[in-house]
Each structure stands twice: as structure tokens, then as C-alpha cells.
Amino acid sequence: MMSNLMKVSSNPHVRSKVTTSNIMLAVVIALLPATCFGIYNFGLHALLLILTTVATTVLAELIYEKAMKQKVTIGDFSAVVTGLILALNLPPQAPLWIGVIGGIFAIIVVKMLFGGLGQNFMNPAAAARCFLLISFTSIMTNFDCDAYTGATPLASIKAGESVNVLNMIIGKTGGAIGETSMLAIVLGACILIMVGAIDLTIPGSYILSFVIFLVLFSGHGLDMTYISAELAGGGLMLGAFFMATDYVTRPITEKGQYLFGILLGILTGIFRVFGASAEGVSYAIIIGNLLVPLIERITYPKAFGRGGKKA
Amino acid sequence: MSKFTFIGGIHPYDGKDLSKDKPIKEILPKGDLFYPLSQHIGAPATPIVAKGDHVLTGQKIAEAGGFVSSPIYATVSGTVKAIEAHRVTTGDMATCIVIENDGLYEEVTYHPIDSLENISKEEIINRIKEGGVVGMGGAGFPTHVKLSPKEPNKIEYVIVNCAECEPYLTSDYRRMLEEPEKLIQGLKVSLQLFENAQGVLAVEDNKPDCIALLKKLTKDEKRISVKELKTKYPQGAERQLIYAVTKRQINSSMLPADAGCVVNNVDSVVAIYNAVMLGRPLMQRIVTVTGDAINNPRNFAVRVGTIYSELVEEAGGFKAEPEKIISGGPMMGFALFDTNVPVTKTTSALLCMTKDEVSQYEPSACINCGKCVEVCPGRVVPSRLADYAEHGDTEQFEAHEGMECCECGCCSFVCPAKRQLTQSIKSMRKIVLANRKKK
Description:
Oligomer: heterodimer
Number of strands of chain A: 0
Number of domains of chain A: 1
CATH superfamily of the domain at 121-278 in chain B: NADH-ubiquinone oxidoreductase 51kDa subunit
Strand content of chain A: under 5%
Helix content of chain B: 25-40%
Radius of gyration of chain A: 21 Å
Shape of chain A: globular
CATH topology of the domain at 121-278 in chain B: Rossmann fold
């Protein structure tokens, strides 16, 4: 029985069951409430757009890796996550080719050219959304569809019109496919928090600092209707829980994550209150991503026993 | 009551149920015995016997090679067969004294003492030194050195490390349950050296029976208390244990004495008792033989020098083909090529597993999830350190506190990308230490 030599390796000799693909799969599952609500809210075309975008991101990664003779990594589901988040950020009536172009940009330009999973310095979905927003502005800002016409609630608040906050929380408004329902997004986020994939550090500090910014600088003060509408409207919830928490592009230490969240809150506040557009979450996230290396520099933790009490 | 603990750490499957209810059984060696000259940190011991010499049980066969070193004793009677290189647990070939067991177990005469009253501190330390007592938790730091800090009157805590946080291990647990008096006596001997110190028995709360028993036995001892620790790996790591008990932090270049502490493992404290009170050197230790490949997981009292394969036989052999055999626990133990290596003073367990979890997974790209940071008891960023290590960047590695890693393995355990974080950091630490020596 002992004829062969045993396997040897450095300690430790046991591993937890959590793998990268488990985590990514959890994110996909957590995005399902928002996805399903989006399809229910906006209809068949939204479903097709989601499927096209996800298929594009996965295929883009597969083809790139095949062409570059690299190991195929689509099994880690990270491309699915990118595709799904990007799709949820698209207007419901956008043509399918928008999903294709956005998906290719997210995977090839933002992710693979920088070295693939773990190496990209910007959230691929957020970067692709910004790219599409600049390149195809009229398509990307047209949220008219069968169910809803006219301005999105966020644009209405900016114009000083009144909005129905309850509908915004439930999600029965116009907007990007997956961002309208605060309820569905928070439900998904709860799943991620329960399985331990994310915690409230970034979303909490992001949302809180954004609210403080609004109170101080929006001119609406403590107007609860206005604040609730700002929170429920646009991409804030989706961004705070699913895009700002992207592991690869956020700081790794807790302290860094608080700083990152606060930075995003302030940037989003600036873009929404002072900017020309009603929305600003994706821009805030990619600018925040760029500042991560600097945040990491100043938040490297103090090792155990450094500055500890000496007897 | 509030529980004591540290920041970080993990909760791996603990596997202790396999062997925790199995009483300690003494086993006698059958084949030759092998005594590596380096069973401790510091200078190797120097042999004082030659091939052909007849030795008795308890006879010194190798002298300490310096102050930070420790002597070695024969654990059987017989003949010195050779002094030659033999495979040891780390996988290296190391010089060993080989003794052919004559099966008679003739012993030398020991010189016990009746009480601690008429014995000086120097004599206590000398008895511990001559007894070959070393830290039996794994590192093997000579105990007499630990017990000789520069300023003994500044020691406030003498801590017995009863955490046994390493999964699968139950040797300390059985020792505490079966011979608690020896443990408490051993602690009293150590306290004799430090007038200003309190004795602390620090036990993880997954051993409530030990906690109750030790509390009962020490309820009239003014200088001894039992502290209940949260069950979490690596609760028994020295610096984490000191923090849990005293809330004092020390870094890797400081000694426990800098925090006013002396820390000893359960088996070491029993060895202190044996050496000082009974005059018996360190010859035996408790070894847990366990794992899903073993027929009857057990706790054995084993003579140092016994070959591991004999332990496997005593535990009923393998019930399934083992894929991995580990000397020690799954978190910090050494994987063995085969079982033809000897039990040393620092052997705590022999773990035989049918599955090797490490080779089941292939490492993939870091996704920066930060789980390694959350669990790291050293409060560093293992993923970054591993990057620096893999790039051979010693400068950045040291600048980012790579030397503060205690190699506990938590980061590799939790990593979802299954990176070999601990391994990379460990290798780099060795390189840095070697470079420092060169300078």
C-alpha cells in the first residue's frame, strides 16, 4: 500500500470550499431579482438585450483567449457577471448591437488587454457604460419604451418636477433595465451579504456620504422626498452594491474601502448636483477606480505588534 | 464570561472527534530508533556516544551544542548502531543517532526531588536544560532559554498554551484530561522562577471539560487562573495567544518577555515537571495518529525516536490508500514522502488523509477579494506580499511587513483563487533571513 511516495506540499494542507467561480455565481444569483424585475417591467426586448450582452462578453473572452493561446477562463463566470451588470445598465429599448459593442469593449479593452481577471483597473461594466454613453449619447439617454415615456424620475427631480417615490422604490418607472427597482437590488445585495461575498463597508460609506453631500450642497436640505428619490433613482443602488464592490477594482483593506466609498459618494454628489446630466454613478465609479492605487498607498495596514504596547 | 481572542483567523473543519475520546495508550518501539541531532531551534546537539556503545534508557547520547541548544537522551536501552543521515519530517536528510533496541528497557537512575522549597532558581533552570526540554508545540525553542529572560522580575504572566487550535490534534487535550496534576505542578515549577508572575492556563472553549477540570483543580491556587479562549485558528500562535490573554501586542522581532510573558505548550510544561521534580529527561510525548485513512485514530504516548510507520500499525493500519501524510496538523504540519521518519520532541500528530485538497485545486488569478487580509492574524496583506515574493522583490516585501507573517496558513486556506500564498511568503521570508545573515 505504501509503494508510492506520498504527495508533498507546503502548509497548509487544507483549503476552504469557496472558489472564484462560487463567488461569481453568487453575484449572478444576487443579480437575478433585479434582472427578473427588469424583464417584467420592460418586456421581451430587455430579455433579448440581456442575453445578447452576456453572450457577447463570454464569447469575447473565449475568442480572445483562444486567439492569444491563453488558458480559457470563462468557467470562472466573471465574464457573465460583467455582461449582466452591463446589460442592467442599458436602456430597455437600446438596439442589440449596443450590447455587443459594450460587451466587447468591457471584455477586450478594459479587461483582457490589461491582463484578464484581476488585472483590470476599472470596473469593465462601468467603463463600458461610460464609453457607450459618450459614443452613443442619444441612444444611451433615451429611456422611452412601451411602458414609460418622458424623462426618468432622476431627470424629473433635476428639472424640479415632483416624482412618485414609492414607485421608484418598487421600480415601476423608466430607466436602465436593472436599475429601477431599489427593492430588487437590495434583495440581491442581502443575498451577497449573507453568503459573505460583500459587506456594507463600501455601499454604506458610499450611500451615507452621498446623502450628506446632498444635504449640504443640493439646496434641498433635509427634504426627505428629494433624498429618497435621489437614492432610489438612477444607478446608485446598482452601482453601490454591485459595481463599487467589485473586488478587482476596489481597495483591499477595510480602511481603504471606507475612503473609496466616501470618495464615490462625493463624486456622485458633484456629478448629480452640479453636472449637466442627472446621472453620475458610473463616472464616479471609474474615477474612483483610478484612485485606488493611491488609496492603497496610504491605507496599507499596520502589522500586528507594530506600535503595540510594550510592557 | 467574556472570551479572549485575537483579530483575524479562520474556522477550518477541526476533525478532533476522530480521536478526542481515545485515552492515551503507551506504545513501545519495535524497530531501530532514530534521534536527529536537531530537534530544536538553535545549534544541533553533539553526539557523545559512538557506534557500538551500549546505552540505557534515559542516558544522554548527545550534548547541547551551545546555549541555544538542547541535549538528547536514549529512550530505549540497546546499542548505538550508527550515526548517519536519515530522512526527517521536514523532508531533509539529517544526521541521526541510530539505536538498536534490545527490548529490555533498562533505565538509568533518576534523581527526583521532594519539594520545590530547597531548590534554587539556577538549579531549576539547569534541570530543565539538562532534561532536554524544548517547546513541544512545534517550533522546538529550548525551554531553559525561554525561562531565562534578561529581567525575570518583569515577567507578569506565565502562560500555558492549552489552545490546541490546530485541527485534528487531540494530544494536548488528552494530556490535560488525564494528567492535569502534572500540568499544574509543571506550571508551579515555572512560577517559582518568576515571583511577580501569574500563571494562566489558556484553553479554547471547544474543550469545556478541560476548562471545568482545570478550574476545579486550581480553585485554591492564588497564582493560577484558567482563561477561556474563543475557538479559532491560530489561537495558539504565540503572539496571538499573548494578545488574547493580555491585550499586549508584540511584533516578530520582539520576544514574549517584552510583553512580560513566558509561553509554554502543554506537553512542555509536563516535561518541565518530569525534568525538575522527577529528574527524568524528555523522552516521551503524546502523538495523535488520525485522519480518514487511519483505521483506529488514537492518542499514543510515544518514545522519541520511534519510526512513524510503527504508529500507523499501532493505529490499525490504513483503511484506505492515503494520498497525503502529514507530520503535525493540516495547517502547519509537514507533508511526508513516506512514513519512514522518526518521532521527534516536536511531533504532535501523524495525520493521514485520503484526499489531498491542495492538488485538487489549480491556482488561478487573484481577484483581490481581500479574504486573506480579513483572516491574517499578522494584519498584513498576504496577496500583495505573495506578489512581491513571486517577483523576487525583497525590498517591497520587507517594506510591506512580509517578515511579520507567522506562516499560519490562514491566507492559503481562504483564498478562493487557491493561490499558494503562504508558500510564496514563506519562501521569501527564508530568502530575506538568509540575506540578513550574509550581511
